[in-house]
Amino acid sequence: MLGRLLALGVGLGLLAGCTSRAARPTPRPEPEASRPRPGTEEKPGKEPRTYLGEGLASYYGPGLHGRPTANGETFDQNALTAAHRTLRFGTCLRVVNMENGHSVQVRVNDRGPFKEGRIVDVSLEAARKLDMVKKGLARVRLYRCEDSG
């Protein structure tokens, strides 16, 4: 009896080793809204104009004013700047407060936010324009700024 169980265990182990790995999920097709419309191809080297997402925004200011940002600039709480985890430094963002419709254009010059669930940190001046200083947080949508040319 023990021999049969041992043989069965070895056989199952060999069969398990021969099975294929789990299949990768099939990538979902791109949503219509994020595909470029015909005739609106982007210029080479430029990031496409698009919706970037939504989430919570916070602001930072007095405690970091005058200190260096991740790109080497001195942080100015009165400038219209922002911190984003992945976007290139210098990227122009339009931040829209979903609670009141106020919006502001900011330039990414720092990394962050480092708090889970937050999508962007804006400077104190940007927070004023978004009317979010009292609350400290606001639900926002992020867009790339329109090209000037």
Briefly, what is this?
The protein has helices at residues 2-18, 124-130, and strands at 51-60, 81-83, 92-97, 103-110, 118-123, 137-144. By secondary structure, the chain is of the alpha/beta class. It has a domain at 49-144: RlpA-like domain (Barwin-like endoglucanases).
What class would the helix/strand composition place it in? Answer: alpha/beta
Q: Count helical runs.
A: 2
Unreliable runs: 19-28, 32-45
Q: What is the average per-residue confidence, as pLDDT, rounded to a whole number?
A: 80
Just name the CATH architecture of the domain at 49-144.
Beta Barrel
- Give the CATH topology of the domain at 49-144: Barwin-like endoglucanases
Largest sheet: 6 strands, mixed, barrel
- Count all strands and give the number: 6
The residue fraction in helices comes out at 10-25%
> CATH homologous superfamily name of the domain at 49-144?
RlpA-like domain
- Name of the level-1 CATH class of the domain at 49-144: Mainly Beta
Oligomer type: single chain
Radius of gyration: 24 Å
Query: Approximately how much beta-strand content do the residues carry?
Result: 25-35%
Lateral strand order in the biggest sheet: 1-5-2-4-3-6
Tell me the overall shape.
Answer: elongated
Order of helices and strands: HEEEEEHE
- First-residue to last-residue Cα separation: 82 Å
